[in-house]
Amino acid sequence: MDPTLLRQYMATVYELPSTNGPLRASMDGDAVTDISALPELLTKPFAIITAFNPRSMLLPRKVNEGRHQVLRELLILGCYRVENCVGYDEEPEGAWREPSFLVHGVERDEAISFGRVFRQNSIIVCNKGRPEVVVTDPTCDDVGRVFIGNWRLRS
């Protein structure tokens, strides 16, 4: 995977729904030795998946929204608990925001399949407090290749 793209994925701030209100976190933090110090959500298994802008190709809003709705319906049919979340660039001049889904308890291989079907470069998978960027587009890198991050809480 292109190092610049990987840095962007790691620095993306994800606004995730939690019982205590929105939780903002990125994957560019220091290594966490005690996951009990993390908010509960970040210690549970989940994936962050989107259908927006396949292979980083900007699509019209209506097309993105249609694709995203299909992804949501398929996830719900798979009996997953799905919540809206968003990834965004925190840089002052950054205007990039991408709607995504927080998919609770999805198996890694199934999450990768959703990423591939919707032509995403990658998805985010979290298990036991460890976030990972997982490649889902074979034109970026080997499908399933993992880049490990560390949660960094944002205010």
Overview of the molecule:
The protein has one domain (3-154). It is globular and about 40 Å long. With 155 residues, it is of the alpha+beta class. A nine-stranded antiparallel β-sheet has the order 8-7-6-3-5-4-1-2-9. Helices cover 23% and strands 30% of the residues.
What is the structure about, briefly put?
The chain has 155 residues and is of the alpha+beta class. It has one domain (3-154). Helices cover 23% and strands 30% of the residues.
List strands and helices in order, with pairings.
Elements: H1 3-11, E1 13-16, E2 23-26, E3 46-49, H2 61-77, E4 81-88, E5 97-104, H3 108-117, E6 122-127, E7 130-135, E8 146-148, E9 152-154
Antiparallel strand pairs: 1-2, 1-4, 2-9, 3-5, 3-6, 4-5, 6-7, 7-8
Average pLDDT number: 95
Give the strand order of the largest sheet, numbering strands 1, 2, ... along the chain.
8-7-6-3-5-4-1-2-9
Count of domain modules: 1
Distance between the termini: 29 Å
Q: What percentage of residues falls in helices of 4 or more residues?
A: 10-25%
What is the number of beta strands?
A: 9
Structural class given helices, strands, pairing?
A: alpha+beta
The poorly predicted ranges are none
Features:
single chain, alpha+beta, nine-stranded antiparallel β-sheet
